[in-house]
Amino acid sequence: MTSPAKPRARRRALTGGLAALGLSSVMITTIGAPPASAATWPSASGSQPVSSTIKVSGVRDGGMVRYYGSGDLAGDGQEEGQDPIFELAAGATLKNVIIGAPGADGIHCEGNCTLQNVWWEDVGEDAATFRGGSTYTVTGGGAKKAADKVFQHNGPGTLNVSNFAVSEFKTLYRSCGDCSTQYTRKINLSNIEVTGTGSTARLVGINVNRGDVATLRGITILNDSGRKVVPCQKYNNNTAVGTGPDSTNCLYSSSDITYR
Question: What average pLDDT does this structure show over 33-42?
Answer without folding.
Answer: 54
